[in-house]
Design a protein that fits this description.
Helix 5 runs parallel beside helix 6. It is globular, with a radius of gyration of 18 Å. Helices cover 39% and strands 14% of the residues. The two termini are 24 Å apart. The protein is an alpha/beta fold.
Length: 263
């Protein structure tokens, strides 16, 4: 890669949660080159939502088009990576393994992730999370999130995983107040991180929490410090969904490399 630092997590209009006229590859490339930073396009890839009704950019095996577009751009720009943020579903492990067999070598970087385990109830969307909390006790939602996350790591499908405690994006003292019987300590996050160390899985240090009510990265600096001392490896991502946000995060990405290297 051309530059010293890399943002491993940016989204374009290839991601299902960005409008069709949202930021393109070229938009990010222009800003990245001006600011001397490598970028990895880590688009959402959700096997549950490939039917036409969901308007998923990757429907109809469009992944080949995605790869072709990036391969063409990589002929000109040596600071971009083709990646995917692939949602883990425990009931789809066989399909996920088949996907990794087919495309694992075609992509530069793949990271596993959990946004939901019950279909159509992503905990990263406040409205859906509130609906889920009407159906399940909060302590069970938190517990299930970490159980699914552990299944993902133990499956060894992915060598990298994203925002390991994003369940606290909205469940925190600044927004949806945790119930007294909820464990919001670092205990579950550290256990998950140690499982990553055991399975040689890299953990994302995701800066996006700073723009949500939790007001901290995923995981926290305290957790990163502990896990790095114990042997964890990290990759750093802004989780950008807009050009403005990406540009704002570049200096923070570079500072974060210094922070992690200092531990």
């Amino acid at each position: 890669m051309r530059y010293k630092y890399t943002d491993y997590h940016v989204h374009t209009n290839w991601s299902i949660d960005i409008v069709e006229d949202g930021p393109s590859f070229e938009d990010y490339i222009r800003i990245a080159d001006m600011n001397r930073i490598n970028i990895c396009f880590l688009e959402h890839y959700e096997l549950r939502y490939m039917d036409k009704e969901f308007s998923n950019p990757f429907s109809n095996e469009n992944i080949n088009t995605y790869l072709e577009e990036l391969d063409t751009l990589k002929e000109t720009y040596d600071f971009i990576l083709a990646g995917l943020e692939v949602d883990y579903y425990s009931e789809k492990e066989t399909e996920l393994r088949e996907f990794m067999d087919d495309y694992g070598n075609e992509l530069d970087f793949i990271a596993g992730t959990i946004h939901e385990w019950i279909p159509l109830y992503p905990v990263t969307t406040r409205e859906r999370l509130m609906e889920l909390l009407e159906k399940k006790p909060m302590k069970d939602v938190i517990k299930e999130y970490f159980l699914e996350s552990k299944k993902m790591v133990e499956s060894k499908i992915f060598k990298n995983i994203c925002h390991i405690d994003t369940i606290f994006r909205y469940i925190n003292d600044n927004d949806i107040k945790p119930n007294k019987d909820c464990d919001i300590s670092n205990k579950n996050v550290l256990e998950l991180g140690r499982l990553c160390i055991k399975n040689k899985t890299k953990i994302e240090y995701n800066l996006s929490g700073l723009r949500f009510p939790v007001k901290r990265p995923f995981p926290s600096k305290e957790v990163v410090h502990i896990l790095k001392k114990e042997g964890a490896e990290f990759f750093i991502g802004s989780d950008s969904h807009s050009l403005e946000y990406f540009e704002e995060q570049i200096s923070k990405i570079k500072d974060t490399y210094h922070f992690i290297d200092s531990i």
